[in-house]
């Protein structure tokens, strides 16, 4: 099955449950469109549930906290630089980690890897300070594989993802 990388903030949310339903909708929609997802840990409603989902995808996590962080970071980068068709990010909540993942996705050709389409979506008026300039400043001229889309509701998400995947085929 063809896979995509799905990334989103989980640390920066006020409460994991708040955005987990959004991530769950994204991932279910991606699957309905015929693609697998590298990891579904962003759908975890609690820390423990997120860890379980992460371990299911990338293997047992080291017990030592600093080793665990290194392991997870390395596995996320492996996923982005691995055998995927595309990368999709929900960027409504600011996240340093998601920003790093986005950069790795669109910089794949600089690493000698094939270019993949990268889609970033954000919910209109969700975050009070708006979307980061570092994301909004990615232009089609500089990064032709990157697309940024705004959505207002789940119907909008479905249309955006449907159109994105139609272009992948």
Please describe what this structure looks like.
The protein has 169 residues and is of the alpha/beta class. It has a single domain, classed as 3-Layer(aba) Sandwich (Rossmann fold), CATH 3.40.50. Helix content is 44%, strand content 15%. It contains 6 helices and 5 strands. The chain has a 5-stranded parallel sheet. Helix 1 crosses helix 6. It is globular and about 45 Å long. It starts with a strand and ends with a helix.
Please tag this protein with its features:
single chain; 169 residues; alpha/beta; Rossmann fold; five-stranded parallel β-sheet; 44% helix; globular
Show the helix and strand layout.
Layout: E1 3-8, H1 16-32, E2 36-37, H2 47-58, H3 65-80, E3 86-90, H4 96-106, E4 118-123, H5 133-136, E5 146-151, H6 154-168
Parallel strand pairs: 1-2, 1-3, 3-4, 4-5
Quick overview:
With about 170 residues, this protein is α/β, with parallel strands linked by helices. It contains 6 helices and 5 strands; from the N terminus they run βαβααβαβαβα.
The CATH class turns out to be: Alpha Beta
**Are there runs of 5+ residues with pLDDT below 50, and where?**
none
Q: Spatial order of the strands in the main sheet?
A: 2-1-3-4-5
How many distinct beta strands? 5
Helix fraction bin: 40-55%
Number of domains: 1
Query: In the CATH classification, which architecture applies?
Result: 3-Layer(aba) Sandwich
CATH fold node name: Rossmann fold
Please indicate the percent range of residues in DSSP E strands (runs of 2 or more). Answer: 5-15%
Helix-strand string: EHEHHEHEHEH
Class of secondary structure makeup: alpha/beta
């Amino acid at each position: 099955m063809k896979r995509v990388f799905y990334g989103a903030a989980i640390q920066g949310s006020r409460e994991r449950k708040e955005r987990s339903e959004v991530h769950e909708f994204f991932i279910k929609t991606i699957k309905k469109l015929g693609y697998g997802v590298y990891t579904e840990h962003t759908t975890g409603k609690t820390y423990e549930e997120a860890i379980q989902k992460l371990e299911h995808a990338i293997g047992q996590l080291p017990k030592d906290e600093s080793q665990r962080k290194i392991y997870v970071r390395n596995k996320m980068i492996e996923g982005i630089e691995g055998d995927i068709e595309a990368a999709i990010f929900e960027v409504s909540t600011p996240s340093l980690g998601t920003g790093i993942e986005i950069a790795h996705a669109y910089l794949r050709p600089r690493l000698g890897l094939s270019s993949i389409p990268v889609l970033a979506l954000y919910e209109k008026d969700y975050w009070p300070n708006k979307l980061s300039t570092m994301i909004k400043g990615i232009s089609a001229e500089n990064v032709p594989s990157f697309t940024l889309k705004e959505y207002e509701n789940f119907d909008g998400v479905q249309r955006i993802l449907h159109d994105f995947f139609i272009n992948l085929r």
